[in-house]
Amino acid sequence: MNYLLGIDASTTATKALLINTNGDVVAVASTEYGFETPHPLWSEQSPSLWWDGAIASIRELLAQTGVDPAAISGVGLTGQMHGLVLLDEQGAVLRPSILWNDQRTAAQCDEIRRRLGKSRLIALTGNDARTGFTAPKILWVRDHEPPIYARIRHI
């Protein structure tokens, strides 16, 4: 029998689900973790928690079921939105991820609106500048962590 693996790397846990090709749930596993709030309005998390959580949850599924990994014919992956992960030239993480619920970027949102105009911004993107979105976070790193900003090669 073949199986499908689902992985969800969320804000508080990485969850894994194994189903058979009939759609029956075979097993579920979850690895919990937290996020940091080092300053008011901040929300950060190490991306390694997502990777480690996925490994632990998948291993737990396999241990629960005894399923041969070769019998897994497909993998679906989902995760939290708008988490900024900055990588250097070698693909190394430069700083903790700034999460979707982080609210530190009000000044950068104002800058985006000022430069583009709110109406034009909405016409171009379908959205206003929001503190949880990625572009204001990149500008925040530019403004507050220039040495890290200078090393960004992948987002």
Keywords:
alpha+beta, four-stranded mixed sheet, two-stranded antiparallel ribbon, Nucleotidyltransferase, domain 5, 155 residues
Describe the structure.
The protein has 5 helices and 6 strands, in the order ββββαββαααα. The longest helix has 18 residues. The chain has 2 domains: about 80 residues, Nucleotidyltransferase, domain 5, CATH 3.30.420.40; about 80 residues, no CATH class. The chain has about 160 residues and is α+β, with helices and mostly antiparallel strands.
Strand and helix map with partners:
Layout lengths: L2 E7 L3 E8 L4 E8 L11 E2 L2 H18 L6 E8 L17 E2 L7 H11 L1 H8 L8 H11 L1 H6 L4
Parallel strand pairs: 1-5
Antiparallel strand pairs: 1-2, 2-3, 4-6
Helix pairs in contact: 2-3, 2-4
Short description:
The chain contains five helices and six strands.
Radius of gyration: 19 Å
Question: Low-confidence runs (pLDDT<50, min 5 residues)?
Answer: none
Output the CATH class name of the largest domain: Alpha Beta
Helix run count: 5
Label the overall shape: elongated
- Element pattern in H and E: EEEEHEEHHHH
Count the strands?
6
Give the N-to-C terminal Cα separation: 38 Å
Mean pLDDT: 98
